[in-house]
Amino acid sequence: MSFLHVVGFGFKVGHVLLVLCCWFMSVIPMNWVISGRIMDSKPSLVGDGGKILGGLWEKITGSSCKIHHYYSQLFGSKKLKKSWWKKLLIVWVFVWIIVCLTVFWYMSSQAIEKRKEAIASMCDERARMLQDQFNVSMNHIQAMSILISTFHHGKDPSAIDQRTFARYTDRTAFERPLTSGVAYAVKVLHSERADFEKRHGWTIKRMDTVEQEPVHKDEYAVEKLEPSPIQEEYAPVIFAQDTISHVVSVDVLSGKEDRENVLRARASGKGVLTAPFPLLKTGRLGVILTFAVYKRDLPSNATPDERIQAADGYLGGVFDIESLVEKLLQQLASKQTILVNVYDTTNASHPISMYGSDVSGDALEHVSPLSFGDPFRKHEMRCRFKQKPPWPWIAITTAIGILVIALLVGHIFYATVNRIAKVEDDYQEMMELKKRAEAADVAKSQFLATVSHEIRTPMNGVLGMLDMLMGTDLDVTQQDYVRTAQASGKALVSLINEVLDQAKIESGKLELEAVTFDLRAILDDVLSLFSGKSQEKGVELAVYISEEVPELVIGDPGRFRQIITNLMGNSIKFTEKGHIFVTVHLVEEVRDSIEVETGMSPRNTLSGLPVADRRRSWAGFKAFSKDLPTSSPILSSDDFVNLIISVEDTGCGIPSEAQSRIFTPFMQVGPRSGGTGIGLSISKCLVGLMNGEIGFASTHKLGSTFTFTAVFSNGCSGSNSTKNKPMNQTNSASAEFRGMTALIIDPRQVRVKVARYHIRRLGIKVEVAPNLNQALVIISARKLCINMVLIEQEVWNKDSKDASLFVNRLKSVKNGGKPPKIFLLTNSISCGRASSPSSGIDTPCIIMKPLRASMVAASLQRVMGVGNKGNTPNGVLPTLPLQHLLRGRKILVVDDNSINLKVAAGALKKYGAEVDCVDSGKKAIEKLRPPHQFDACFMDIQMPEMDGFEATKRIREIESSTIEHTPEACENLNWKVLILAMTADVIQATHEECTKCGMDGYVSKPFEAEQLYREVSRLLKTSARHNE
User: Fold this and answer.
1) Strand 338-344 and strand 277-278: pairing?
2) pLDDT tens digits for range 290-332
3) Residues 6+ apart with CB under 8 A from 577
4) What is the maximum alpha-carbon separation in the chain?
C-alpha cells in the first residue's frame, strides 16, 4: 500500500508542478515586464544604483523573453527532434537510476543503524536491571553474614537454629529476588568432627559424590551421600533455607568449585562467585555467592592469613541463572522479541553459557558487560533479534517510487506540451458554453416573468370582474356559475405560483420574509379555505394549538400558510371519511412529554378511526436526537420558537412503493392523484429555509401523518410586541364573553381538547361532561353558572329520549334568570337538522365544524344576544375595516391595460376610496407633481414608453427637489405619496427593484380584498406614524 501511495503522490505532484511551470512560461507575457519600465518610473530615488539594477533587470527579463521565444518555437511549434528527446530521456533515466540506488543505500544503512541502536538499548537495559537486582541480593546476603556472626557465634548458647534460620530466610526472600536459597556452612576442624557429628546427630557428607554420579532430582536423598573423607578442615552446612534444605550436612569443602570459592572468600573478605555448575537436586546451571563469617574482633585491615584464621563459617547464596533471567525478561515488554544469552567469560577462549540459546536468524549481536561484584570472574550479556531483519521496504518503495516519478515526469512533460494547446481550446469552448448557459438562465427567468405577467394580467381582469359581478343581483344558479369560475381562476393562479416557486427553488432565489403574524389566525384562515370541502365530504376538520405556543411569531406567514395549505389540501383530496387533524406544539413539549402524542387506539383519535403513528413521522428529526446539544441556541434561546406541526388524516394512505419518491418534484403517488406533483417538494424546501425538517408516516388504507418543524422568532419576547400585534377578530369578541362558562358534552377527549381550545380563546371558562346525565348533575349542582351547553352531534344522536329529558330539565334551570343556551356541534347542516329529535323538542342552534374562534364568536353573539349580531359568512373578509381605512382616501391607479384599470378602480371604489386612473407613467408624473391631493398610488410596473420603475424614480426626484427648494411650503404638507407596485411579475428580482427605485409596497396580480387590506393598512398606518 505504501508503494502505491508514493507512486500516486509523486504522479500528482509532478503533474501539478510541470503544468504550473509550463503555464508560467507560456501564459505570462514577458514583454509586459520590459515595456512597463518599472525601474525607470522613479530614477531620482535610486540614482546610479537604480540604473545598474535596471540594466540587470532588463537582462533578466530579456533572457526570460528569449526563453519564452525558444519555448514557443520548440514546444509550441513541435520542432524539437525526436532524437534529442530520446537522448534526453536516456540521460534522464540513467541519472535517476543512480539517484535511486543512492537513496536505497542510504535508507538501508539508516535502517540498519536504527536496528543496532534498538538492540543496544534493549540489551543494555536488561543487563543493567539484572546487575542491579544481583547487587541487591548480594548486599542482603552480606548483611545476613553479619547477623550470623552476631547471633550464632556471638551468643552462647546460639540464638539461631535451623528452624529459625529457615523461617527468617523464607520471610525475607522478597529482598533477594534473584536467589534460589541461602545456606550457612560452619568451619569444623578434624579434631572437632566427632563431637560436631554427635551434637548434630548426622554425619558430614561428601559433595563430589553427586558430581561423579548424578541422580534425578526427584530421587535425590542426602542419606545416600557418602561421608566426607578425612581432611584437616570441614565446612558442613548447618543452616539452610527450605528451598535448599537438602544440602544440610553436606561438606562444601569436598566439592571442587565450592572449595575454591570458600578459600577465596575467606582470604579476600569479599563476596566470591563460583563458575557455573549444575545445582544439586535440580540439575540446572547456577552459581553460588559466598561470604566468609569472621569473628567480631577481626580488624578491618587484616591480612589474608589473619582472615583465614578468623573465619568461623561461610554463608552462601544460590542463584539459579536460568530462572532469574527468565523472570527478568518477563517483566519487560518489547515490540521486538530478542534472544538473551548470559556467559561467564572468565576464560575468554572457552566462555561458559549460563543462559540462552544460540538459535537465531539474525547475525546482528550486541554485547553488554555484567559486573556481579567478583573481580576475578567476568560475565557478559549477548543479545540478538529473534527474527531475521525485515526487507527495507521503505527504502525499496522510495527508490522505486522516485524512479517511477522520474519516468512519469519525463512522460508528463512531453504530454503536457501537447495538452496545453488542447486545454486552451477547451477553455475557450467552456467559456463560450458558460456564456450560453448564463444567457439561457437569464432567458429562462425572463421567460417566467413574461409568462407570469401575460397570464396574470388577463386573470386579474377575469377574477376582478367576477368579484364585481358577485356584487350584483344574481340568482342562485348564476351565483354558482360565478363561484365556479372564480375557483377555476384561482386554481390557475395557484398553479402558476407553484411553477414559479419551483423555478425559484432551482435557481436558489427563494427567500423568506420576517414579519410579525398571528399563527392561530393563519390556521383559522386555512380552515375557512377547506371548510366547504370537508363539510361536503362529511370529514371532520380540526386544529389544535398548544397554550405554550406564543400568540405572535416573526417569520414568513405566506410561506407558512403555503405549507399548511399544501398538506391539508392533499389530506382533503385523499380522505373520504374520518377526520383531518392539525396540531401545533413546541418541540420541547413533544420531546419531554409523550402524553402529547396520538396513539393508534381509535379511542384516542378525533373521529374514532385508527391513524398512522405520528411518532414515526419525526423519527429521523435532529431536534429529537439524543446527541443534540442542550445548549443549542435555536432550542434554548427565548428569542426563538421551535414549532412542530402535524397534519393527520384517515385517508387512503400512501403505498409503500411510492413513499420513497413522495418529495420528488413532479412525481405522482398514483395515476388518479391529480395536481402537478410539486406541492410537497416546495413544502420541503420551505421547511428547510425555516431551519426545520419534514417527514411522514403512512399506512396504506389507514391514513397518513405529515409532520414538520419550523423555527420562528418569538414575537412576544420584546417589550413593544403589543404595538405591532396584527388585528385579530377575536380580540373584541373575547371581552363580550369574559366571565361566561360553557359546558361541553363529548365523550371523546381529543374533540373536547379542540373545542376547549377554541372556546377559551373567547375568554369563556369551560367545563366538560362525557354524557347528558353527567351534564345534568353538573348543572343541577348550581356551583357554576352555566351560560351555554355545547353538545357533540354523536351524543345528541345517541338517544332521543335522553335528549328530550335533558332539554326539559334544562328549561327548569335558571342561571341568572335565563336557562343555558344549547348548541349542537356538527360536521354538516343536513346532519344537524336530521339529528333533531322528532318528539317536538326545539332544534338547538347549530355550530358548523371546523371550529374557528371567529365563527364560534359570531354564532354565540347571534344566539346569546351580545355584541355584534351580524353573521359574516365563513371565509369572507369583513369589509368594514377596509372601508374604514379607504373612505375619503384619494388614490391614483396607473396601468396601461384598460381592463386592469377598471378592476383596480372598481375594487378600491367598493371600499369608499376616490379613484383617479391614468394609463402611462408620464401622466402619473404630472398627476403626482406637488402640490397634489393623492394619498396613495397603485402603479403597474410593465408599461410602454415609461415603466413603473422609471416613473417612480422621477416622482421621488421631483419630491426631493420640491422639499429641498421650498422647505417652508412643505413643512405642514406631506407631499411624499405612498407608491404601491401592482404587477403580475413575482420574480424576486422584481421585489428588489421595487424597493431600490423607492416604492413602498408590492401587490401581485390578481389581488384580492385580503391582500389589498393587508398592504393598504400597513402603508397607511406607517404613513400616519411618520406624520405624527
Assistant:
1) unpaired
2) 989 988 677 878 888 888 888 889 999 888 777 777 777 777 6
3) 537, 538, 539, 607, 609, 650
4) 157
State the Cα–Cα distance between residues 825 and 549, nearest whole angstrom.
26
CA atoms of 767 and 210, how far apart (whole Å): 111
Looking at the chain, the number of H-run helices and the number of E-run strands are 30, 31
Count CA atoms within 13 Å of residue 555 on its CB side. Answer: 27
Cell matching residue 666: 413532479
What integer is the mean pLDDT of 667-695? 78
β-strands 890-894, 936-940 pairing: parallel
pLDDT at position 784 over 80: no
Model pTM? 0.52
Average pLDDT of the chain to the nearest whole number? 77
Sign of CA pseudo-dihedral 762, 763, 767, 768: positive
Beta strand 890-894 pairing with 914-918 = parallel
What pLDDT was estimated at residue 432? Answer: 92
Residue 438 burial (10 A CB sphere; 0-12, 13-18, 19+)? exposed
Give the dihedral of Cα atoms 570, 571, 576, 579; nearest 10 deg. Answer: -170
* Residue 719: band (very low, low, confident or very high) from pLDDT cuts 50, 70, 90: very low
Beta bridge partners of 488: none
Partners of 834 in beta bridges = none
DSSP state of 538: T
Amino acid at 923: K
User: What secondary structure does DSSP assign to 696-722, as a single string?
Assistant: EEEETTTEEEEEEEEEEEETTSSTTTT
The average pLDDT across 993-1005 equals: 82
In which element (H, E) is residue 176 found? Answer: none
> What band does 226 get if pLDDT is binned at 50, 70 and 90?
confident
Confidence band of 727 (pLDDT split at 50, 70, 90): very low
Q: Using the predicted structure, report yes or no on whether residue 549 has a pLDDT greater than 80.
A: yes
Average pLDDT over residues 598-604: 53
CA–CA dist 619, 608 (Å, integer): 25
Spatial distance between the Cα atoms of 854 and 875, rounded to a whole number of angstroms: 10
Phi/psi at 699 (5° precision): -125, 125
1023 pLDDT above the threshold of 90: no
Q: Which of 787, 781, 782 is nearest to 738 (CA)?
A: 787
Is residue 642 within 8 Å of 657, Cβ to Cβ? no
Could you give the CA distance from residue 370 to residue 133 in angstroms, rounded to a whole number? 12
C-alpha cell at 137: 541480593
Q: Which residue has the higher pLDDT, 488 or 956?
A: 956
* Contact present, 762 and 859 (Cβ < 8 Å): no
Helix (H) or strand (E) holding 286: strand 285-294
3-state secondary structure of 546: coil
- pLDDT score at 8: 52
Cβ atoms of 853 and 522 closer than 8 Å: no
All cell numbers assigned to 679? 406541492
Q: Do residues 240 and 166 touch, judged by C-beta distance below 8 A?
A: yes
Kindly state the helix (H) or strand (E) to which residue 724 belongs, with its residue range.
none
Q: Grid coordinates representing 708?
A: 414538520
User: How many other CB atoms sit within 10 Å of the CB of residue 281?
Assistant: 19
The helix/strand/coil state of 84 is: helix
Q: Is it the case that residue 382 has pLDDT exceeding 60?
A: yes
What residues contact 370, with CB distance under 8 A and at least 6 apart?
A: 127, 130, 131, 342, 379, 380, 381
d(Cα 10, Cα 448) in Å, to the nearest integer? 51
| DSSP class per residue in 777-809 | HHHHT-SS---EEEEEHHHHHH-HHHHHHHHHH
**If pLDDT is split at 50, 70 and 90, which confidence band does 101 have?**
very high
Instruction: Using alpha carbons, list the distances in angstroms from residue 410 to 91, 407, 915, 959.
Output: 11, 5, 83, 74
Predicted confidence band at 843 (pLDDT cuts at 50, 70, 90)? low
Contacts of 769 (CB under 8 A, 6+ apart): 743, 744, 745, 775, 777, 778
